Each structure stands twice: as structure tokens, then as C-alpha cells.
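2024-03-11 09:14:02 DEBUG pipeline.ingest accepted 1 chain
2024-03-11 09:14:02 DEBUG pipeline.ingest length=331
2024-03-11 09:14:03 DEBUG pipeline.predict start
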Amino acid sequence: MLEGSQARAAEIAAPSSVPAPETTASESAAFHLRGEEGLRHLAACPIAIRYRRRRHDVSTGPGGDITRRRRDEQASPFGLARPLLLACTLMGFATAAIAQGQRTAQDHARGPADACLGFAGGLSLGAPLPVTKAKLRPGGTLRIVAFGSSSTTGFGAFGKGTAFPDVMKDELLRLHPDVTIELINSGRVMEDLGDNISRINDDVLRYKPDLLIWQIGTNDVVWRGIADNAKEMLADAVKRIKAAKTDVVLFDLQYAPLVTLTSRYERMERIIADVAAEQRVGHFPRFLLMKRAIDAGVTGLVSWDGLHNSAEGYACVGVALARMIDAAARQ
């Protein structure tokens, strides 16, 4: 598994046909479909307000409660306060919704999600899922918690059932029609790694899941800064979840202009890959899948804000995730 993670890292670090941090030609077309006016609203927002970068010291208190001590460090070179970010987002939201609603039948016929899925060949979670395997037997019930930040909620797309956890569930039901699948979505907008860890007891473990899909890292990279001890924090959290007899899949960053704006994404990708390999848990390579597709010219996978997945992007990663879960459960 360590060799697999090293190969992924090499492919992620390989020179891309996409110049960064400028928006690619293919993604410019996608942004147009999702609402060019919404992007202009976002770009017009001032970015002078900076989040302080923090170190999260995480420890387990009585009863398994999480406590954190934060130490202010160097301000992140690019970040926005939550209220300002949300205000900017809402300014573009309505125009983006209108633009997406005006997509033609020809746009849908191009099938960006299907085109993206064509680049999933050779990718896997890199680890077996023994608990999930047992629950996917005919007549079984598989309980999944989707945990993370705005990507988990489906932010950036519009319409019921477009979030990647919903797409994942639908595809798993297609693959296993004789299995009951329970999905709890515990996503929360704008959270970073430390925020997620602080609510593991309440929003993950109390549901006694068989499988946890943990989407992590984007807000640390784009807005908040990566804690010095981020790898240790993530590893300790994964150990706690595994101890509860839960399979874990770490779901990494999206390949999008705001994510690759600084080199921080490379560090976060390494942290996720290393923890997954060392803890022998699954790693869903969203970044690599999207990078392959976009570098090959697939458009429409990123939403109007240059950050989140679009509905087509969520459809691609949701279906790919379900298929990789199915493959891992057959090991």
C-alpha cells in the first residue's frame, strides 16, 4: 500500500498541462456553464481579512471528549473570515443557480461525469473494507456516515441528491439491490481538520457506523492553514474510529483552481496518503481522478466558485467512490 501511495504522489506532483494558479481553459468553460457572473462576484470580494493559522493540540478527555488548544502562528497567506466568505458566496449563489438551470440538453448530453469516470481506471481505495464486506451480503444492512465539510454537503451543486454521498449511496444500491444502505450525512460547511475531530463523538461514533467516508483537508489548504501537527491529529482520530469497529475511507482534496493556488495542497495530499497507508485504511483519490480528467480536457467538473465540485463533478466522484468501495469489499 505504501508503494501505491508513492505512485499516486508522483502522479499528483507530475507537471500538469494546467497552468496554476490561473484558471484552465477547460475549467473556464465549466465556470461559464455554472455562472460566470457568480465568479465575478466572488472575485470582487475583498480578501484583506486573513485567518490566523493555528496549531491544533488534540487530546482525549474524560469520556472520550476532544479538547483542543490553539496557538496562533504566521497568518495564512490566503484566507477569508467565515462571515466574509459566506457573504461573498451568497452574492454569486442566485446567478449560479440560474446559469445551471439554463444548461441545454446538448450540455447534458456531453456527460462530463461519464467522461470523468473513464479516468478512474487503475485507481482503488488501496485497502480492504472487512466490516463493509460483511454488511454487503444479501439481506444485510450497511450504515455509512459521510463526514467532512462543504463538499460532503454538496455545496456548489443544486438539486436534491447531487451531493457525492447521495450519489455514492444510489450507485451502491444499484450494485447491491438486496442490501439496505443507511446514510447519515454529517458534513458541515467551512470546517477544517480540527473542527471535524472535535465532533467525532457526536457526529460519527454515536451512530455506530460500519463505514466512515471522511472528506478532509480543503479548508485547511484554502482558507485556514494546515496545523503543524495535522498528520498526528488525523492519525490519532483514525485510530479511534478503527477501534470502534468501523471501516474508514479518507476522501482527499478536489482538483480546482483555488485548491492549487498555493503549494499547501501538496502537503495535505501527502498527509492524507501517508495516514491512509500507515493506518491501513482506504484513500479515495478525488484529486488524482479529477486531475486526470481535467488535464485531458474534460470540462464542467468544478462549480462557479472555482473551488467546489459541480453536480457533474459530484456525480463522477460519487459513482467512482461507490465502485471502489464495492471492489474493496470483494477483497
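2024-03-11 09:14:41 DEBUG pipeline.report Residues 17-81, 89-110 have pLDDT under 50 and may be disordered.
2024-03-11 09:14:41 DEBUG pipeline.predict end
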